[in-house]
Automatic annotation (TrEMBL):
Organism: Neolamprologus brichardi
GO biological process, any: positive regulation of mitochondrial calcium ion concentration
Major subcellular site: mitochondrion
UniProt keyword annotations, A-Z: Coiled coil, Membrane, Mitochondrion, Transmembrane, Transmembrane helix
UniProt keyword Coiled coil present: yes
InterPro entries in the record: CCDC90-like
Stated name of the protein: Mitochondrial calcium uniporter regulator 1
Length: 214
């Protein structure tokens, strides 16, 4: 917004009639009589004539710099009008600057909102990535744990099977040894029975001979 302030230009020449030559502002006759005390009459009249011209010229200058009350009121109205125009232009300028500042603030606010949304999206993406990585890590740990558990179970089953085989072999060995011992006992039992039978037979024979002998 461009505001052009015009320079205050007023007509300062009042509508006052200039002093006429015949108009006198002091008593010329009294001044002539006063000057005649030291000068001649012609000299005194010449000096008074010069004083009259100088006075009239000075009064013309004074009147030219003066204004009437009506002109003063007109000038005051013009000045007030110019002040009102300047105030109006200043208000328009302030509104325009405020609108511009408001628009800039809105743009900055929009940029901040976009930046905040980007940051939030980035944080959410990072969080989702971390969650996915954590899920993958948990899955890997779970898979590794299940693998170790399966390996441990397999080892336990292998150890159990080996122990069962060892127990089976041991039981078979024990059964074999027990069977051998039973066979040996049966053999010893038969041998003992045979031995006792032979002993009893011998005793019977001896007793028979003893009875016969007696």
């Amino acid at each position: 917004l461009k505001t052009s302030v015009k320079a205050f230009q007023y007509d300062l020449n009042p509508d006052v009639p200039k002093a006429e030559v015949q108009k006198l502002f002091f008593d010329t006759h009294a001044v002539v009589r006063l000057l005649e005390e030291n000068f001649t009459t012609s000299q005194s009249e010449g000096m008074v004539s010069v004083l009259v011209k100088m006075t009239n010229s000075n009064m013309d200058v004074i009147y030219s710099d003066m204004i009437t009350k009506v002109q003063q009121e007109i000038m005051l109205q013009r000045v007030m009008s110019q002040i009102a125009t300047v105030k109006k232009d200043m208000v328009i300028l302030e509104k325009s600057e405020f609108s511009t500042l408001l628009a800039e603030n809105e743009v900055q606010l929009l940029q901040l909102k976009v930046q905040l949304a980007d940051e939030m999206q980035k944080v959410q993406s990072d969080k989702m990535l971390d969650m996915n990585l954590e899920k993958s890590r948990v899955k890997e740990l779970r898979a590794e744990h299940e693998k170790k558990l399966l390996e441990t179970r397999t080892e336990i089953m292998e150890m159990t099977a080996e122990q069962e085989r060892y127990l089976t072999q041991t039981n078979m060995k024990i059964d074999t040894e027990v069977a051998g011992l039973k066979t040996m006992l049966e053999s010893h039992k038969l041998d003992t029975i045979k031995y006792l039978a032979s002993v009893f037979t011998c005793l019977t024979v001896v007793l028979g001979f003893y009875r016969i002998w007696m």
